From TrEMBL:
Gene3D superfamilies: P-loop containing nucleotide triphosphate hydrolases. It comes from the Eukaryota. GO terms for molecular function: ATP binding; ATP hydrolysis activity. Residues 85-233 form the ATPase dynein-related AAA domain. One of its GO terms (cellular component) is cytoplasm. PANTHER family: VON WILLEBRAND FACTOR A DOMAIN-CONTAINING PROTEIN 8. This is ATPase dynein-related AAA domain-containing protein.
Length: 350
């Protein structure tokens, strides 16, 4: 899904020549998520619900089931039942965190959360400094806590950290072993020996699992190619913006009182902006997050005009003349009077 244009074209041509055609990911029947008698059912996939040691670590968020996301959740559950670690790759704002948290909520799995950045080091991955009684002490990082307790480690913004840092996760994911920066070693339970009773050895819990979230590599997010470094160790899922039908269903849930016509115009306009971003004509690929924020604002403040609310999202690009012209043209094409001035208002012919 996120290949460079030239490589993607070559792949599509090869597949077409071999008679392999692309089919829709959405199935004809309506899929549903439900938990009944301790069993989670997503579509045609079933899994027993986990009994957590603490419910305070189980994420519970506002989430509306739309068909496209339910299909992704079912695919995630199938890979989960195979014992795989999950990697969700997609643009900013397409719902990777929402999907991960909803997935863990349905399974009732407690999580540990860590967010990476460009200054992340190997040491900060494994220990974290805290201030207690005026003294700096070092506690286990969420990664080590998850390994010890069997919780799910959610690694956010994995592409932002240098690849030589994230590559230390390779042995942990691949074989369950990892050497920490303070000299301790994580080993799987299957390698338990008499010598491993020392305090420098951490036994990996059999229920430990990872869900990694990353933006697609390259422009405009300028992250590192996490998939190229570690992608073969994970079950990968490309998360895209919802289809028109799924996005309309989502917006109706967030803004039940917002006029249907306005939501259609917003979906059409932002869909065109995403196409322009894929073609490299604009820098930022406007995502579902922006449209949802606009609809939530209109739901709460119906007297605010849609043109003024859109400015909350697109005003940053008004500093770039070319980007501003493209945005105004697209909005006007879909009947949204954004950035109107006497210079771009045309009177209708009689």
């Amino acid at each position: 899904r996120f290949l460079p244009p030239l490589a993607k074209q070559a792949l599509d041509t090869t597949l077409k020549n071999q008679g392999i055609v692309k089919s829709s990911n959405l199935k004809n029947e309506e899929l549903a998520c439900e938990v009944s008698n301790g069993v989670l059912k997503i579509g045609n996939t079933h899994s027993p619900v986990y009994v957590p040691d603490t419910k305070t670590k189980v994420p519970d968020i506002l989430f509306f089931d739309i068909q496209q996301h339910v299909v992704v959740l079912e695919n995630m559950l199938q890979d989960w039942l195979l014992g795989d670690h999950l990697l969700l790759v997609g643009n900013q704002g397409v719902g990777k965190n929402k999907l991960a948290d909803r997935f863990l909520y349905l399974l009732s799995r407690p999580r540990e959360y860590i967010q990476l950045h460009r200054d992340t080091t190997v040491q900060s991955l494994t220990i974290q400094p805290v201030v207690k009684d005026g003294l700096i002490k070092y506690d286990d990082s969420p990664l080590v806590v998850a390994v010890k307790t069997g919780r799910v480690l959610v690694v956010d913004e994995a592409d932002k950290a240098p690849t030589h840092v994230t590559c230390v996760l390779k042995t942990l994911v691949e074989s369950g072993e990892m050497l920490l920066s303070d000299g301790r070693r994580i080993v799987p339970k299957t390698h338990l020996l008499a010598s491993t009773q020392s305090p420098d050895v951490i036994i990996s819990h059999p229920n430990f699992r990872m869900i990694v979230l990353a933006n697609r590599p390259g422009f405009p997010f300028l992250g590192n190619d996490f998939f190229g470094s570690l992608g073969d160790l994970f079950s990968c899922h490309a998360i895209d913006n919802p289809s028109v039908e799924s996005e309309m269903s989502l917006l109706r849930s967030y803004g039940p009182d917002v006029p249907e016509d306005i939501m259609h115009r917003l979906v059409g306009a932002f869909g065109e902006l995403r196409d322009l971003a894929d073609q490299g004509l604009i820098q930022y690929p406007y995502s579902t997050r922006e449209v949802v924020n606009i609809v939530k604002h209109l739901q709460e403040f119906p007297n605010d005009g849609v043109a003024s609310v859109i400015r909350n999202v697109v005003d940053f690009d008004s500093w770039s003349g070319d980007a501003k012209d493209v945005l105004i043209r697209v909005m006007h094409h879909h009947g949204i009077p954004a950035g109107t001035s006497p210079n771009n208002v045309n009177l209708a012919k009689k």
